[in-house]
Specification:
single chain; about 20% strand; alpha/beta; globular; seven-stranded mixed beta sheet; Alkaline Phosphatase, subunit A
Length: about 500
């Protein structure tokens, strides 16, 4: 069957286990009747970093964030920083040296993405966007272009995220009158209430119920217009969440060892030799100014060295001999990943070490001692599909594939840190305090729900597979330069 339109509701931060529980208790009757009973409810693997913004990208491009050169909600471009310097407090966005998509710089994410990756809004002529920041090509079909920031600040200042969700759902139902081909709506309340309290707090659970009510109204409208039978409707999520009991400040850790660190919002600091860019609070990209250690010479780290080149495992160990081992010893730090001079990606946990290399779609996974992720298959070469199948039900689904890809981005950190569930990696300037976090490689953050009124095949899937699937079902060509594969 060829579908005429596709509507995607991204319930930010929604979790598959919560959906299952509420469905089993009969608390989501519209979602059950109109989607699950005759369609699909699957758990998929999201992308790394598993955080709002970057993890929206796969649904709209079929690509991993790193493929689009967006390795986090905050990043630091070493080559451009080396060329243009630190700038001033007023130099937001200048030259693309560093970025934080929390606040006004959100508007820059579309221009920061690779130009040869096409969004749904560039492919589908009658496509619309509601409360969504990944919208390159949407033009005047962005139904909340200016008001999104107002709604977000209102929700942030008042904690009335139910008001924001209600507005999103009402605008979605109203948009059906526009004769749309495609609509992508972001519904933020579950994520925001989870950060403020927990993923199972009554406020967060209430937004699942509000979503169900909105789905009922949307289906009613589509049926009234005679459009339900040829409309694809999806409910998806970008990431999971885990409750946070402890906060670990990476900036303090580095500066207590004499490593002056650049981080948001203090982007005007001079003389920094490291940069810390936290995403979702469950992961961070760390960057180091590379310098040569001259025997017997007195050196100033601020004046000697080069930002433009990646710092390898060996470089970091030479500059700061105990830094990585001390960082990994912190309870908040679960996974460290860094490239060595041979081009291997070295993944380290307190359990063990593995070297990873991906070439031509094949992943070489070589364990040194104990497996860092607790996998039981040992050293192995496998395809990206086999990687997903072998690890889907583990605590670290798809980890080697996700890590190999994020290091393909020129803006990726020299070191990637993934937090232990229960901890996050940001203390300073985090208002309000996060009581739940996401962004890491752990299953609690990487597993997300995919609910649709179409039947999907059995087997594990990634969120990057949804984009080519709906394009194919609508009769459109799928771009050849994407990471995902059509499921049907």
């Amino acid at each position: 069957m060829k579908y005429k339109r596709c509507i995607i509701l991204l319930a930010d931060g929604s979790k598959p286990d919560v959906f299952r529980d509420l469905l089993a208790r009969g608390e989501l009757p519209s979602i059950k009747e109109h989607l699950v009973d005759n369609g699909s409810f699957k758990t998929a693997v999201s992308v790394f970093p598993s955080t709002t913004g970057p993890a929206h990208i796969p649904y709209l491009t079929g690509c991993l964030p790193a493929t689009c050169n967006i390795p986090g909600i905050r990043w630091f471009d070493k080559k451009k920083y080396a060329r243009y310097g630190h700038g001033s407090i007023f130099s937001m966005g200048t030259h693309g040296r560093y970025r934080s998509y929390v606040g006004p710089e959100t508007f820059l994410i579309n221009s920061d993405m690779r130009n040869d990756i096409y969004t749904s809004f560039e492919i589908l002529p009658k496509s619309y966007s509601i409360f969504n920041s990944i919208n390159r090509g949407v033009g005047n079909r962005n139904l909340t272009k200016i008001m999104r920031i107002w709604y977000w600040y209102y929700g942030h200042l008042t904690d009335r995220w139910r008001f924001v969700d209600d507005a999103a759902l009402k605008k979605t139902v109203k948009a059906v009158d526009k004769g749309l081909d495609f609509l992508f709506t972001v519904i933020p309340g579950i994520d925001e209430y989870s950060h403020l309290a927990s993923p199972t707090h009554e406020y967060a659970i209430g937004q699942y119920r509000a979503l169900d009510s909105g789905v009922g109204e949307l289906v009613k409208k589509l049926k009234k217009k005679g459009q339900w039978e040829d409309t694809m409707l999806w409910i998806v999520s970008d990431h999971g969440l885990s409750e946070t009991h402890s906060h670990f400040c990476v900036n303090t850790f580095l500066e207590s060892r004499g490593i002056k660190t650049f981080y948001f919002p203090l982007t005007y600091r001079k003389g920094c030799v490291a940069a810390n860019m936290v995403s979702g609070n469950g992961m961070t990209n760390l960057y180091f100014k590379k310098r040569v250690i001259a025997s017997g010479a007195k050196q100033s780290p601020e004046s000697i060295g080069d930002w433009s080149e990646p710092a390898t495992l060996e470089d970091i160990n030479e500059m700061y001999p105990r830094l990585l081992s001390e960082l990994l010893a912190e309870p908040a730090v679960d996974v460290l990943a860094v490239k060595d001079r041979a081009g291997n990606l070295v993944a380290m946990t307190r359990r063990g070490v593995a070297k990873i290399k991906m070439e031509d779609g094949m992943i070489d996974y070589n364990v040194e001692g104990n497996d860092p992720f607790g996998y039981t298959f040992g050293s192995k070469q496998f395809s990206s599909d086999a990687c997903l199948s072998l690890t889907f039900d583990s605590d670290y689904p798809d980890a080697s594939y996700q890590l190999a890809h994020i290091f393909s981005s020129p803006r990726c950190g020299d070191v990637i840190v993934s937090a232990t569930p229960g901890f996050d990696l940001r203390v300073k300037y985090e208002n309000p305090e996060h009581r739940s976090s996401h962004g890491s490689l752990h299953r609690k953050h990487m597993h997300v729900p995919i609910i649709s009124n179409i039947r999907l095949p059995d087997g594990p899937i990634r969120t990057i597979d949804i984009f080519p699937t709906y394009l194919k079902l609508m009769g459109h060509d799928v771009p050849g330069n994407i990471d995902g594969k059509a499921l049907l």
